């Protein structure tokens, strides 16, 4: 928690921005702008001003989109094209950072953050082993030929198991009502994590790269490891903010 967690989340986001820029062949200007805005949003959120962090992200994305749109969709910078990918990359990499830092700072933030992460991990691990064991029809062969429907269903089951385990250690949730509440949230988050995985696979396929980076030997880049957490973190934080379940 605290500064350590915020720094870790921000570091992951900064690496993701760098990987995104390299994958989309953005000029150094786009990468530096993205790094600066993401860092500023993370700092604001850590100090409790998440509203200003979202305004910063929205303003940077909006101005970037307006500026690029007026110039026909892109800007030439040192021979490279800074296009709308900057806006999408900024939101993709920064929103989960803000979401996780905000969520961890809530009264029950430790359990809520662990829940979101455990659901994603549970879905990912269960999908991998179920898909390898059962095989069957492909989920999205044009995007990710190794993923199967059996793996996806196994991932949903894994998310429910993960949610149940977190409920057992979350004060006030180790009962039927608590289990139903977390199970009801786990399934859509697991679906989002699977879609996030497919989305990142599609990004790599369009960019013509196998991995988002090489920071993690044998595992690719940070985006490759956190692709499912990106949408789940944003959606999970939104649900916890709307319901007050995290305190």
What does this structure look like?
- The protein is mostly helical and 247 residues long.
- Helices cover 73% and strands 6% of the residues.
- The chain contains nine helices and four strands, in the order H-H-H-E-E-H-H-E-E-H-H-H-H.
- Helix 5 (109-134) crosses helix 9.
- Residues 71-81 have low confidence and may be disordered.
Give the quaternary arrangement of the chains.
Answer: single chain
Order of secondary-structure elements: HHHEEHHEEHHHH
The number of domains is: 2
Shape: flat
Estimate what percentage of residues fall within beta strands: 5-15%
Instruction: Indicate the mean pLDDT.
Output: 88
Spatial sequence of strands, sheet with the most strands: 1-2
Q: Fraction of residues in helices?
A: over 70%
Q: How many helical elements? A: 9
**Which residue ranges are poorly predicted, with pLDDT under 50 across at least 5 consecutive positions?**
71-81
Number of strands: 4
Structural class: mainly alpha
CA(first)-CA(last) distance: 16 Å
Main sheet makeup:
2 strands, antiparallel
Rg calculated over all Cα atoms: 19 Å
Salient structural properties:
single chain, 247 residues, mainly alpha, two-stranded antiparallel sheet, 4 strands, 6% strand, flat
């Amino acid at each position: 928690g605290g500064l350590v967690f915020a720094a870790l989340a921000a570091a992951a986001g900064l690496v993701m921005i760098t990987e995104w820029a390299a994958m989309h062949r953005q000029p150094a200007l786009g990468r530096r702008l993205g790094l600066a805005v993401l860092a500023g949003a993370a700092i604001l959120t850590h100090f409790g001003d998440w509203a200003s962090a979202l305004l910063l992200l929205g303003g940077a994305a909006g101005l970037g989109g307006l500026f690029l749109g007026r110039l026909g969709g892109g800007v030439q910078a040192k021979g490279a094209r800074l296009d709308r990918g900057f806006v999408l990359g900024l939101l993709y990499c920064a929103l989960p950072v803000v979401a996780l830092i905000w969520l961890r700072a809530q009264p029950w933030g430790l359990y809520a953050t662990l829940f979101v992460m455990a659901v994603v991990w549970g879905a990912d691990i269960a999908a991998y082993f179920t898909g390898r064991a059962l095989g069957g029809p492909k989920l999205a062969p044009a995007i990710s030929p190794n993923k199967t429907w059996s793996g996806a269903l196994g991932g949903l089951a894994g998310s429910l198991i993960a949610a149940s385990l977190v409920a057992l250690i979350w004060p006030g949730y180790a009962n039927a009502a608590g289990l139903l509440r977390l199970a009801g949230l786990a399934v859509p988050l697991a679906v989002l994590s699977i879609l996030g995985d497919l989305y990142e696979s599609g990004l790599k396929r369009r960019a013509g790269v196998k991995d988002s980076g090489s920071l993690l030997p044998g595992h690719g880049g940070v985006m490759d490891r956190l692709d499912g957490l990106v949408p789940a973190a944003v959606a999970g934080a939104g649900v916890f903010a709307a319901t007050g379940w995290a305190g």
